[in-house]
Amino acid sequence: MTTSNGSVLEYRLSAELTAIAGLAEAVTAFLAAWPHLAMQVNLCLDELLTNTITHGLKGEPGHEIRVGLALAGGWLEIAITDDAPAFDPFAEVPEPDLEAELDARTPGGLGVHFVRSLMDDYRVVREGGHNRVLLRKQLPDGAPAPH
Amino acid sequence: MAITTTLANLPEALLLQASGRLDGATSPELEKALLPLLADAGSRVLLDLAALDYVSSAGLRIILMAAKRAKQAGGRFVLCGLQPQVSEVFEMSGFTRILELAPTVADGRALLAG
Predict the structure, then answer these.
(1) Which residues of B touch A54 (CB under 8 A)?
(2) Distance CA B77, CA B72 (A)
(3) φ, ψ of residue A84 in degrees (nearest 5)
(4) Is the CB of A110 less than 8 angstroms away from the CB of B60?
(5) Cystine design at A135: which of A29, A78, A117, B18 (Cβ 3.0–4.6 Å)?
(6) How is chain A split into domains, by residue range?
């Protein structure tokens, strides 16, 4: 389910990996003025949702994840709300060793690394049995205001 | 959006072309198509990503497995045709330093022929 009024996008998806591509399309449309930002936001959402679906919820059916995007005062604000067990990836997932040679490289931690690299602010709060991941990103200079 | 793979035999290598979206939902398909190509000792594989629009860490996991497998088997694994938004993800991961990359299929073939 999607609602969008130009400055706010509210999206609900069932907690399944195959549902993420639909969210990506809605985000790309919502951020149509900033295609590069849209790609970066979609990568962060995909990584965080994939972690929640596969590790937090262990693929269990019947869960819903809410994603909200809001444009305000030159910033994009993002909230992801899920009902998985309490988890803070920014506190618990270590940074990957990006300098390691091929034999020593492991894929773990890359997704959270992308979020840390691409967002200006990231944190998780626990509210009423839900994780709320809150992300902020400054909009590119000279960005057109949403209508 | 899903992922599609197409396999072709070149004199220098096996060419696998992947298109679409490479994420947690579709990476098992690439894993099935790509990793068996690197099973034999000395295998040479060129992975063309020119039609790949998106990659996440789930996709990078398969690429890393393929590169390690090629090295262990004394083979070669070269990627080519990365679109800017895909290249950006490879760079953020430090993968441009540990993988063999070429701009185009022709460049990748030249690299593998050498």
Answers:
(1) 24
(2) 11
(3) -75, 165
(4) yes
(5) A78
(6) 2-37+50-138
